[in-house]
Amino acid sequence: MVVGDVMLDREVDGTVERFCPDAPAPVLDVSMVRQGPGGAGLATRLCAAPDVEVTWIGPLAADDDGAAIQRELAAAGITTIALGHEGATRRKTRVRSGGHVLVRLDEGGPGRPTGPVPRAALEAIAAADVVLASCYGAGTTAQPELRRALERRAEHRPVVWDPHPRGGPPVPGCLLVSPNLSEARTAAGRPDDPGDLVAPAVRDLWAAQHAAVTGGAHGAWLAVGDDVIYTPVESVGDGDPCGAGDRFAAAATTAIARGATVPEAITLAVARASEWVASGGAWEFRRSAHTGPAPERDGTTPGPHGPSDTEAQRHTAKEVVERVRGRGGTVVATGGCFDVLHAGHLQSLQAARRLGDALVVLLNSDASVRRLKGAGRPVQTAEDRARLLLGLECVDAVAVFDEDDPSTVLGELRPDVWAKGGDYAGVPLTESELVRGWGGRVVLLPYLEGRSTTALLSDAG
């Protein structure tokens, strides 16, 4: 079930090889025109799947564009329950050439809902497994009858709310709200805060159960209880971001409808939105391949082939921290034993590196690992473990500590961000309070289920 403001999106593509003789304006030779439901209409279209029954509720104009929207939704197997619509259908036309948008033309509207809400709409909201409120500022999510129905719905069953600055705010109790970083900063009145601070702020502001703040190529920050889980984009490449927010919201909603937890849904939604952008966005609806460059390293640190002992000594953790801070950068730290590097380690380390400008790994010494893990551990010396970590593109420095926890070395380095694996969600950590004490942030990273050194060694033995 999707409730929200629909519009008609048109894409006009062509080539520019000359300018107008009477004005300094390019002449577009049109080669292709595409159109389809936009706004909540696109979100609805993206929710449609063979195993998902979708209904859209919102204002629909009685004009040719409105009829075109209804035909395409019906062709995708989507049921529409139309409200009265003020004015002509809102139409957004993007004029493109060479993969770039030259200009956007907005017509029609205002698109506010008119008249009473049909009884069928209220009954459908109450009966749906999951409701996505896809707001595009025309007034559907502010309509009093619909808001009351959504409020009642949120008390008992999942509501996902994709807000808009000019739309009605999310009703209390939503399972998930998903503003982008700009929208979240504006709503929370925190214009300069990073995503991991804004996510819990908007979650509390809107009395939601979870808040996922999307950051485009930077992934998403999910506020869960007292924790924030950061989900990075696996690869970043050029593409068209048009419709990426709808792709994210639709993917999260359908995942929840299929039984996923909210963190699982957000991981999937980030991946789907990334694929959407890389494949060309709304213009290339059905393409899915994507590639992208590796994250940038701090220019002073060893390359992927591993450092010599001299290099490792020269590029100490403290020097890296001072160098990055000196140019106004953000230092991220994470910690662990890293006895046998595996895919779970790699995923967490790559995600941590994307949170700032340098990643320092705090590594348990051999004696520390032995106390924590028992006889037979570590299987690799601290020197070898550090060398392997420094050979990773995402690691900028390693600091070895002898204590049972990294509090001492943390206090010396004072990183801006302390990142831990998502398997620590809900677990109180001494170092978390320490980091927050000097104004640092604590972020949880994606957790790859079933990957652990202990399990690998047990299976091998």
From TrEMBL:
NCBIfam families attached to this UniProt entry: cyt_tran_rel
Alphabetized Pfam families for the sequence: CTP_transf_like, PfkB
Organism taxonomic ancestry: Bacteria, Bacillati, Actinomycetota, Actinomycetes, Micrococcales
Pathway: Bacterial outer membrane biogenesis; LPS core biosynthesis
Full protein name: D-beta-D-heptose 1-phosphate adenosyltransferase
UniProt-annotated stretches for the region Disordered: 284-316
InterPro entries noted in UniProt: Archaeal_FAD_synthase (IPR050385), Carboh/pur_kinase_PfkB_CS (IPR002173), Cyt_trans-like (IPR004821), PfkB_dom (IPR011611), Ribokinase-like (IPR029056), Rossmann-like_a/b/a_fold (IPR014729)
PROSITE patterns given in the database record: PFKB_KINASES_2
All copies of domain Cytidyltransferase-like, residue ranges: 334-424
Domain Carbohydrate kinase PfkB positions: 1-282
